[in-house]
Amino acid sequence: MLRYTLKRALSLIISLAVASLVIFFVIEVAPGDPASYMLGINAQPDTIAALRTELGLDVSKTQRYLNWVGGMLHGDFGTSYTYRTPISEMVADRMWVSLPLAAFALVLSTVIAFPAGIYAASRRGKAGDVVLMGATQLGVAIPNFWFAMMMVLIFAINLRWFSAGGFPGWDEGFWLGIKSLTLPAISLALPQAAILARVMRSSLLDMLGEDFMRSARAKGLSRRQALWRHALRNALIPVLTIIGLQFSFLLAGGIIIEQVFFLPGLGRLVFQSISQRDLIVVESVVMLLVFSVIVVNFAVDLAYAAVDPRLRSRS
Amino acid sequence: MERTSAIVTALRSRNFVIGGALSLIFVFLALLSFIWTPYDVTTLDIAHKLQRPNLSHWFGTDHFGRDIFSMIMVGARTSIAVALLAVGMGMGLGIPLGLAAAASQGRWLDEFIMRGNDLIFAFPSLVIAILITAVFGASAVNAIVAIGIFNIPVFARVTRGAALSLWSREFILAARVAGKNTARISLEHILPNVANLLIVQGTIQFSLGILAEAGLSYVGLGAQPPTPSWGRMLADAQTMVSFAPHLALIPGMAIILTVLGLNLMGDGLRDLLDPRIRNARS
Q1: Most CB contacts within 10 A, which of A25, A151, A176, A201?
Q2: A·B CB contacts under 8 A
Q3: CA distance to partner chain A, nearest, from residue B187 (Å)
């Protein structure tokens, strides 16, 4: 396990390094100089030069890349071109909206998908299975941001159970914060739950054909007992991978959902920064998103190997 | 003779027929929009703004008085074009990479391609779109590239997985003995045998592409006005949803029906093309 962990950790570091290089160079291609953009067309050359020094733009590309990465390792993401404030502070505020939203949605989608998938698998081919699978077929076809708009129309505008958008901040109380994230989390979670329920069902059905299930039945367990005691545990392995993958989708999907509910999360920050050409903010937020995806997948890989020893010996 | 029986079998699959019909309706609307739409989508008619669906405007009009049915038709064109080109890009780059990886299994080329794949997987298409847009500005082309890049590792993986299992088969060995080189075997023997799988995957990626395009144009990273797109229509509808819900309902239904149609067609195709499932059924 240690060998495997070290090997995976090494590839994690390489992935992060390459990803940061890609992001840095894509942003580098952007035309125009941020300093002259910030100061407008009437700026004096020496003012521009001074600002370039202040922003750390007067050094070579390699040095700039090293400064950027080195800074991030210390939690310093640089200074926003537009607001002249440290990006780490801007990002930290927004993270407290985006991360809880993704986590909330992940919990919801798991809580919905597990029972649905298990039920469908245990009633394979019967009415309950057919209805549920039909519902998931519809669930994967619905764009989550459209679903979110419909939720706003029904639960915020017509029934007035929730506010149509905005976020009061966690200082106003935990439950108030949760309440304003409920509709966004549900709209993010349902389409993902549909996918997860399908994976859960088919993974369980695969297990039903295995030899150990026949042994369990031969031992005298009922179909249902065998399903709960033996099939479920083994079926969870592929389901775990999908949950890991979904986290990245939820984080990215959250960026779109934030627009529907006017939530002050990372999505707002990114779109604002794009329109203000505050590229250093875009660069850092994108790196942060990619970083979370890579780290979550790394964690899933390790969890996977911890559960299934066969994976460790391979490769 | 065999061809007719294939068509008969295909028509017997309910999923394939329903899904295919739904998808064809939207393809037809998209193609028709090139030569005819009920109204011109670029002319504003403020006098008739925000009408509910009625006889002269089947799906009503938007806040500029534009006919929504016509916009759905042109929007179908945008969605289908973006998704199709993105699938084409994913296939065009992903399949050769997958074939090459499988052919050099275990050696450095395979390792290199697969690690590159993992890396691209860490960039969701939305994140790629954000990066490209930050640098080059928003456009439908950027949406195609963003979704297309996301598709490359998907096709590379499916191709490699299926091709790997073929490389150990006797008929490949026979081709080797006959003196064919790796590239020729990949093209003449491996590719035709993984084609079915790739067609099914292509249908799935096509439907995901439609969803992704809608999401990107909703947040303003896709097709720009005045080009109508379903995602933009939804973005415009957002502030008016309380008094004109049809503005959001209709484009939403268009997206759902298209994606549902493609998914059903993909399921049907998989059942038809995968002999294991076919035999299990009969």
Answers
A1: A201
A2: 119
A3: 28
